[in-house]
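Blinded run. Sample ID left blank on purpose so nobody reads anything into the name before looking at the predicted structure. Input follows.
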Amino acid sequence: MNLDSSHVGSGVSFQKNENILSCIQPLVGRGYKRCSRHCYFFSVDGSINNPLSALLNQGKIKSGAHLLDSLSKLRLEVKNHPSLNIKAGLDIGFTFGGLEKVKVEQKLLDVFRKKSPAFSDNAFLRAARHLGDSGESAPEYWQPNFQPNAQQSCFDVVCIIHIPIAYIDGKPTENIDCLKVVETRLFELLLNRQFNLQQEGIEWPVKSGWVERAMPLDDIGTEHFGYRDGITSPIYSASAPEKDAQGYRHIHALGELLLGHPRNDGDNLYADLNLTKKAHTHLDPQVVPNDEAYKSFFDNSSFAVIRKMEQRIDRFNAWVEQTAKSLLTQDAPRGTSDQHSDSYALAQRWVKSKIMGRTPDGVLLEPHMRYRDLLEPPKAPRADPNDFHFHHRDSDGRPAAGDDSQGSGCPFASHIRRMNPRDDPVTPFIHRPVLRRGMPYTDATSKGMLGLFFCADIVEQFEHLVGAWGQHRVMGIPDRSRTRDPIIGQHEPETNAMYLDIPGQQNPNKAAQFTEPFVVTRGCAYVWFPSVDTLNNLQRFQAQSWK
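Blinded prediction complete.
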């Protein structure tokens, strides 16, 4: 549900590094526009040793001796299939358990264990403590598909297929023919439905699976609560520039997204596979030979957090309506004209804007804004909706026009200011961007966001953002509010209150109370998306006994 900031973005560009796009999977690099998303989750039977060799010997498949080759072949077929007049897309990721089951060399798995413990631990074990998933969002209440058991992880491989859509009468319509071609080939390769395996006495490694589907709601790009989505586009560079005068970083180092590159602080955790922390710390015993072949396994890969978040839309709308009623007096708010005299409707829009930090249309809230500004577009709209600071000073160091250092425009506790404090004096102030590729979903029982967040360090980036900044009271800035993130926070009645500046009221600083969450976690998983080269050559990194 994160909609703002270079900490969380929906798009990405690589400054002076366009060649990097050929090295990484398309979902990480360019993303997909005007597409639906189908995530196919598969479990692998790791007890089968070299499971496809018999098929290869019998001529049942002409290329690929095991599951890894089948995945790589499928990706190329989707990209170049002659039946697909409109290009579809396919991206492939693995859980840590999946890498174990396809027999990636143990010493490479040990590097993940030491350098990326969140990935090797898995989200289910870490969610309560590190993501704040409690109450209705507690891991034990997740969908069964996202819950591992004693025998196996919840899934091992995810294949994400992107199918072109067209907008007919403003509604997205999927290219069904394209979906059928891609899905049929996927099942043929991974579930091997083209012939009867049991009859031939052959065991197949892919044992089970399920699918999660997501689809844009409209051409504008909104989500189920009615906010405009996909506003930001973080920029990555091979050498991130220094912070600006306000202490903020507009451009980030490649290492904040891709392994094997320096991060914003210059650290490259995967430059030396013998190290577990920064270069100046104590060296552990050697883990993996420091040759280019092993380093290439990690280079240009990225971690992803797949997070299914159910949005309680009726609960959210009822809270907005009730809060608007409680905050209004019988007097019409100042700043409304005769043709816009519905103070109750305006109050609801104001409440929604304040808790987000932007209007539902995506306009930043600033100190001078009043009710009428919610009805009229700004006279001088920002060329870039992300190019702003909260602190503005004149030459004498005094607050200048547009200064929001006191949070009277965009509240400190609002979603966007919490997710990216920009130049607020938050301690510690970490510039750790997270690339967001989320998309709304609608299934038989719920609606929400199928979140997909890419980063290079799950602990310092995603877990810090969601677990620390999202689930705790704002620290380090003068905010009276006592609330978790108003949109995604796991609210509890006794701890949550947010002060809203209601213009035209005798007592404008009334507190809005949160008694229950609006977003409930239905499942979460940590996945590794290897580079294109690693994906196409995973055989090189398998244990010798399985080759």
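Unblinding after everyone has recorded impressions. Residues 391 and 405 are 5 Å apart (CA to CA).
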